[in-house]
Design goal:
By secondary structure, the chain is α/β, with parallel strands linked by helices. The chain contains 13 helices and nine strands.
């Protein structure tokens, strides 16, 4: 009888172990399915963590050589996996399960899909002679994706000869005008040609974007509704009128990201602010206030935040009521000699940026920035 009871206890223990193993395995599989149902992009730091835990859970400790310096995506993946050290596979599965549950629990209801022919993150409308291009990613501070760059450029080109459009307005949604380049442009959907192709594609997108602003023949107004960082600052010099709120700030953090000026700022800023002030912005990355931007000539006028939209609307409606050919011809005279130079500067800046994006310095800076966001 004692022998029988002992065998039953041993068998039950073994079955309990099998049941426990089966439970973590099934929960791990369920978490993978759940991850694929998320509708909101969890961000690059979360995706790297998911990758590391998944590899640790299935393979164990990192067993691959460190990638070369030019593949910063592979380096980021390597670092996060290597950082898990000797964590057991079961521990990694449990962490993976808990993290996916956390992501699923914090996700807000999915927004409605963008209508066919539109670009996610952009609202483009035409009304009463006004083309309005509104950046609409307030949860990402209106940061620009490659698709948004192309969407803005294509909208300007499509309405350049549209007689119903007399003036165009660029603005943002929420408290920010634009936080600049979405750095996930460099870390997701790596093309088959690797970083070289990614950098060339980025150069072409940026060149197309700035060229479209330079060549737009009608008044182009920037309505800066809040802080701006990077390319939404540099391209203000390509606009004809710039209005901002009194709480707007302007910063160009190119050097700390291992990059270089764009938007023709290497040419326009020294001629707007003077070389000393332009260097302070472009080289030391000093953030300037709305008043400083206005005093320096980058901004036309400042309005209080509570009156901003109304005041800008008055200006836009007035311009839309003016004779359109007169405005177009006047802009052409003002910009005639400048535009050829700007196209040349834009091409040069974009080529330099392509080279910078492939540098170890830039890749390391972007990786460090993304790691700080974890």
């Amino acid at each position: 009888k004692q022998w029988y009871q002992r065998r039953v206890a041993i068998t039950a223990g073994r079955l309990g172990g099998i049941r426990c193993f089966s439970d973590i395995g099934s929960r791990f599989e369920a978490a993978q399915v759940k991850l694929n149902t998320l509708t909101e992009d969890p961000g690059n730091a979360a995706k790297l963590k998911i990758y590391g835990l998944f590899k640790q859970a299935n393979v164990g400790s990192c067993n691959i050589p460190k990638p070369g310096g030019f593949n910063f995506v592979a380096k980021a993946k390597y670092d996060v996996w290597k950082g898990l050290g000797d964590m057991t596979q079961d521990q990694a599965k449990e962490e993976y399960i808990a993290f996916v549950a956390e992501l699923a629990g914090s996700e807000e209801p999915a927004p409605a899909a963008a209508p066919a022919g539109t670009v996610a993150g952009l609202d483009v409308t035409t009304e009463a002679g006004v083309l309005t291009i509104r950046l609409n990613r307030p949860e990402k501070f209106n940061a620009l994706t490659w698709e948004m760059y192309t969407g803005i450029a294509d909208s300007l080109i499509a309405h350049a000869e549209d007689p119903s459009v007399k003036v165009a307005v660029l603005t943002g949604t929420g408290k920010w005008y634009c936080a600049g380049n979405d750095l996930s442009n460099f870390t997701k959907n790596m093309p088959a040609g690797g970083p070289q192709e990614m950098a060339l594609n980025g150069k072409n997108v940026l060149n197309h974007f700035c060229d479209a602003m330079i060549k737009f023949p009608k008044p182009l107004i920037a309505a800066v509704n809040g802080p701006a960082i990077g390319i939404p600052v540099t391209t203000l010099g390509l606009c004809d009128l710039v209005y901002c709120t009194d709480n707007a700030t302007f910063k160009t953090p190119f050097v700390s990201l291992g990059q270089s000026p764009e938007g023709c700022s290497s040419f326009i800023f020294p001629r707007t602010f003077g070389f000393a002030k332009a260097n302070e912005m472009l080289l030391t990355e000093r953030q300037i206030t709305a008043q400083e931007a206005c005093d320096g000539g980058l901004v036309t006028r400042i309005f209080s935040e509570d009156r901003f939209r109304d005041e800008v609307d008055k200006v836009v409606k007035h311009m839309a009521s003016l004779p359109p050919q007169s405005m177009r011809i006047s802009k052409g005279l003002i910009r005639h000699e400048l535009n050829e130079k700007l196209l040349e500067v834009n091409a040069r800046e974009c080529e330099v940026l392509r080279e910078r994006w492939l540098s170890d310095e830039c890749m390391t800076a972007i990786m460090n920035f993304m790691n700080r966001k974890k």
